[in-house]
């Protein structure tokens, strides 16, 4: 397995468990870094950006997830937040992790990233109003497809399960049907995903899992890659609507030829691993193997929902309710977004997630949203209700004192109509 941020973890969320590991991941693959906090805060953050840490490795990623999560909860992001993301795009349509000076054109040294580009495409498609940026992003992703049908973290890099899955999600989010996914060298993205699957010749506990990518011709089970591949094999992106169709039930042999069948067997593998650890996944980061992997557990909840396995998603979702808030506070906007997307995929309320309003927490990490639709927290509602009650009493008193009680009577009649 190549040493990249995704091969070492997921996009660096496992690195959040150990700062030293975060430094290691950052040095290994800066373009795929995701939601872990940087070792130091940025001295001057760009206007419109979510989060308070250095965006060098994950600016586009965390911004995109934040916008997507807000959109699923009826929150219209601030224009400056969307404008910042649009401004990060290179002229050819690609995105890198972060451009400190968007006025400076991308050149050959700019590390164009399929994961960041896919996340940005999904976010801009969701918020609307930037069809040209979305189209350019999709065109670049199609141009970066490998001959095996998949994608690596950068153009020309060997395909991996995570990058292939996130690109599938971007294409699906912009209207590409499962049956119309682009092919290269006669291979589709699903052919690439199936090539990363551990089949019937693997040891029983690993059957159905996915590897990040081959290592010396060998496939090693990887929970992060499995969660990503299950979602991608179902033709889904970061946003999964609850109540979707179930994946196909099929034999081990047939699953090697059928993406949705492979998704179902991958979901079986994830459930088995989580059940063995108390309904969550464990970190694979060096030095943090005895720590829970909160971010990947959230992604697994989304994967199970994508595979039509809502009952299997309930226990890890409950575990997240009880154990994820401190992690999200430490990790920042992308972490809050992951939890919101997990709640959305399962029909849970992100404004009361284990007693925490995830939407309010996410909103507080960036510029004030432009508008919210039914997005008040429970505490805000209580305060509003109290304010209304107080003023209603005052108005009644004034009305009675002025001898105009008939106005109140008239309002009651109108309310009864």
TrEMBL record:
InterPro entries associated with the record: SQ_cyclase_C (IPR032696), Terpenoid_cyclase/PrenylTrfase (IPR008930)
Highest taxon listed in the record's lineage: Bacteria
SUPFAM superfamilies, per database record: Terpenoid cyclases/Protein prenyltransferases (SSF48239)
Signal peptide: 1-34
Transmembrane segments: 390-408
Ranges for domain Squalene cyclase C-terminal: 117-165
Protein name: Terpene cyclase/mutase family protein
